[in-house]
Amino acid sequence: MPIRNLDKIFAPKSVAVIGASKRPSSVGNTVLLNLVDGGFTGAVYAVNSKYTEINGVACFGAVSEIPDPVDLAVICTPAATVPDIVRQCGEAGIRGLVILSAGFREASKEGAALEEEIRGMARQFAGLRIIGPNCLGVMAPHHSLNASFASDSPIKGRVAFISQSGALCTAVLDWAIQENVGFSNFVSVGNMLDVGIADLIDYFATDGYTESIILYMESISKGRGFMSAARAFSREKPIIAYKAGRFAQSAKAAASHTGAMAGVDSVYEAAMARAGIVRVFDVDDLFDCAELLARKKLPSGPRLAIITNAGGPGVMATDALLERHGVLTELSSATIAKLNKKLPAAWSHGNPVDVIGDAPPERFSAAVEIVLGAEEVDGVLVVLSPQAMTDPTGAAKAVIEAAKLSRKPLIAAWMGGGKVREGIKLLNDEGIPTYSSPEKAIRAFMHLVSYARNRETLYETPREVPIEFALDRDKLRAVFDTILSEGNDILSETASKALLEAYEIPVTQTYIARTAEDAVHYAARVGYPVALKIHSPDITHKTDVGGVELNLMDADAVTEAFEGILKRAKQHRPSAHLEGVTVQHMLVAPDGRELIIGAKRDPVFGAVLLVGAGGTNAELFHDSALELPPLSENLARRMLESLQLWPLLEGYRGRPGVNLDRLVEVLMRLSYLVADFPEIVELDVNPLLATPEGAVALDARIVLDHQAVLHPPRAYSHLAIRPYPVEFSKQTKLKDGTEVLLRPIKPEDEPMWHELVASCSPESLHLRFRYMFKATTHQMATRFCFLDYDREIAIVAETEEDGQRKLIGVGRLVADADHREAEYAIIVSDPWQGKGVGSMLTDHCLEICDSWGIQSVIAETAPQNERMIHMFSHRDFDIDRSHARDSVVARKKLAVQK
């Protein structure tokens, strides 16, 4: 469903330019000319009390004087005038605004106050949408709309460009025109007073002209909305993003190792990867990826074949590919045999395919056709170096013809200057992305491979509690509330470990010793050797103050260490409150590996998890990985695999590896701890000792958000990705007494979903899916079983038959991005039809709509499905049979809870 009223901005039937002017090069004059000269076919009006017409366009003193309805108003007046103009537009029924004016929060406190005034004014008019202020404007080439003050208009294309920088927009436009790259939409978002990046991603997902998005962003304000929109879009189409401000520092000093290691940019990096977004790190890559995306063909894997007429460039391309972890595909014997028939005997007989410097166009054509047709190849790069006998233009024509026979991506690097210019133009005109060097081509190809890899994570929907985890939430909350009675924002090591232990994360037993005598007593209790560490709420990095002593073997060593630790801590931190030391048994694990695991609250994306190389050098080596909670098994394992120390965890040069299954489980348990308690703002387990037998927390530290402790927020509001909504599960019975569990669908339900569909007759399937198919596929199942629970939910009816769990029905709600309307669909297994399953699912889904604040529910069914139509009628749905002969639409308006 389209995002509310954004059609008024991107597909308007009429546009008014407020602040239109006759003054050449003024913003008001440029916008008006862009609309008229750009070929916009709708009505265009100028608004300026000084004129009656501007360049043949009728001019009015105010929007209220325009005699016809206006969809979009483009405001070009000084900042101080904008709030009243927004009021006038709202009263005139205009629901789309683009505010180009500058001088708002980006300029001064007074400007920020004006922006708030606009926000308040806009709230008075339902459905009013605003892009800007302080923006370049918007362009929708397929609608011949240029509502901006840019000097040029892009051609029609399939890539939507969204930018937080107006200056970058003009640079991209200039480049696009030179490279003949088109766009479906082009948006400068400005200050994002109303319409934000997430809104635009959602809108372009519904736009038939948009097949990919290029995104330049500096900051995000609503992490969950952004993640939901990006994840939904990236399931089907790629997003390429450049994130500026990579080295911005957190405004608040970190109170833990995790806080110091999880910087602002690294959190964005983790969020983008989880959302399926491909991130680039320089603007050239952004342009190169835009060119690839505009050509439609995407690689199905990382296996690249390189065809070249020169050995050096082939080596350059190979180096660039391997450096970025691409795969130089090994050509099969069948492919080599075909090439032997077409290429001279001196060809390279492998990949890269060197067709020799004297290669005529026909040789390029033959090599491209054969290699593109090879099963072992996912994409092809053709590199041409202009040598004395080379025909760059003829080679380009030959490559173009050969590429037409394949659906695989082909990219080109035509190296040189004037000699290759005509060939480059031909390749670009025919939709083959062409680069000036092999390295640039490889970078662009690998970014698209990254997109394919990232997309896999989109089908890893986290579960609130994995099946094998038996967590008693009420009991755990009681444990946490007891710990909170300490009254400290930074929990002691013992209190932190108590919470970890409640989540069945193994910890070493720790005792607090206030005196040397206590330390000796506890050392004897836990057994030698022991470790002593300073115990102070004011000291995070214990080793920095000489606050750690290890491998103490007897009482004398413990006494000496106790006194030494306190003395050194007092010297380094005279103001710190020293409560004594902690005493714990010193684990001896020659095959163990020290890790750090932890969590940090990010102001945009909420809770973020970290795992990395631990111990005293944790922050020095920066070998860490971040992920958004909660974790699935695969996500936890991917975090570990991304570490440089992964080979050591697996086992290296005869040394045994650690217990990876147990380590993955600890990461998952930690993620659920963080998800369950929004009060936790930072958490450290450093070190976590991983051994071949298991994993144990040797030290722990938890930092609490005092305000969250006093005023607990809504469940999971601190997470950017909504976990499995267990609150929508309930046990019930059918009329015949059959026990049925109604619950949200899970990814692991895929086998039972296939069985459910297989139990339905062709007629039932046609009524549900509105088309016929022979069998379900994994691709189909991922669409129905892997959901973003923030905007879509499927409730399954599960029962047990002959000792086997099975699904007997599914009701599905898909809400629009504004959570105003939801589409509803239902399927019930043929043997269970007529037993009340459909009614039970429908009633439960309507209850969910109430909790979501949905205003109306719409369902579509076939006229012959009288049982379904009767069920909807019985629940006060309005039945509309006027849409089409093969369709009945049922709609129910819901009471919105205040």
CATH architecture of the largest domain: 3-Layer(aba) Sandwich
Arrangement of strands in the largest sheet? 33-34-35-36-37-38-40-39
Mean pLDDT: 87
Helix fraction, binned, reads 25-40%
Question: How would you describe what is shown here?
Answer:
With 898 residues, the chain is of the alpha/beta class. It is 36% helix and 23% strand. The strands form seven sheets. The chain has an eight-stranded mixed sheet with strand order 33-34-35-36-37-38-40-39, sandwiched between helices. Strands 3-4-2-1-5-6-7 form a seven-stranded mixed sheet, sandwiched between helices. It has a seven-stranded mixed sheet with strand order 9-8-11-10-12-13-14, with helices on both faces. Helix 6 (197-205) packs parallel to helix 7 (223-234), helix 17 runs antiparallel to helix 18 (493-502) and helix 19 crosses helix 20. The protein is globular. The two termini are 24 Å apart.
